[in-house]
Design brief:
single chain, alpha+beta, five-stranded mixed beta sheet, four-stranded antiparallel beta sheet, elongated, PRX_1cys
């Protein structure tokens, strides 16, 4: 099985879901995407994750991000689980959950790790850009819930650094200072790109206020 790496084209697929049949690339359109897997329906950690993701709908929308979940159970099970999520988490699930009973998507994205479990998916997260390229991969064990604030933080960083010659430092949050990429050296270009100026801590470490998005 091929291993997905950063920069690879995200595999396309057609699969049933809680919102009907999904053609993945068509579903994403020109938006960013977050594809994330769940070990099974009616599991406690997953229930909290999906509920919290639903509550972040406005945050994902303002970043032009479409969210889609994966679980190996069928559509009927998903429908009953969504009712449980909505009731227990006080929200409304507003994104599709893929019904990956045949493991098609799980295999394409290497979501089943046999040394952890031979039957259920680990907690994988893929951030995919509008060109359908994989930009982030995180894999958690089944026992650990994901931090979706971190996923939003990474999306903010990716969208900012794609449009400006900067990188984001440790623990960066949207609005914090950023780092000018080391390859940018021309003084006139620096002045043009960073009119607010910058602080040179070292020649390779130059800090500047975050540019406007």
């Amino acid at each position: 099985m091929a291993t997905l790496r950063l920069g690879d084209l995200a595999p396309d697929f057609e699969q049933k879901s809680s919102a009907g049949t999904i053609k993945f690339h068509e579903f994403l359109g020109n938006s960013w995407g977050v594809l994330f897997s769940h070990p099974a329906d009616f599991t406690p950690v997953c229930t909290t994750e999906l509920g919290y993701t639903a509550k972040l709908a406005d945050e994902f929308a303002k970043r032009d991000v479409k969210v889609i979940a994966v679980s190996v159970d069928d559509v009927d099970s998903h429908g009953k689980w969504i009712d449980d999520i909505n009731e227990t988490q006080k929200t409304t699930v507003n994104f599709p959950i893929l019904a990956d009973a045949d493991r098609k998507v799980s295999d394409l994205y290497d979501m089943i790790h046999p040394n952890a479990s031979t039957t259920v998916t680990v907690r994988s997260v893929f951030i995919i850009d509008p060109a359908k390229k994989v930009r982030l991969i995180i894999t958690y064990p089944a026992s650990t819930g994901r931090n979706f604030n971190e996923i939003l933080r990474v999306i903010d960083s990716l969208q900012l650094t794609d449009s400006h010659s900067v990188a984001t430092p440790v623990n960066w949050e949207d609005g914090d200072d950023v780092i000018i990429v080391p390859s940018l050296k021309d003084p006139e270009v620096l002045k043009q790109k960073f009119p607010k100026g910058y602080t040179e801590v070292r020649p390779y470490l130059r800090v500047t206020p975050q540019p406007n998005k």
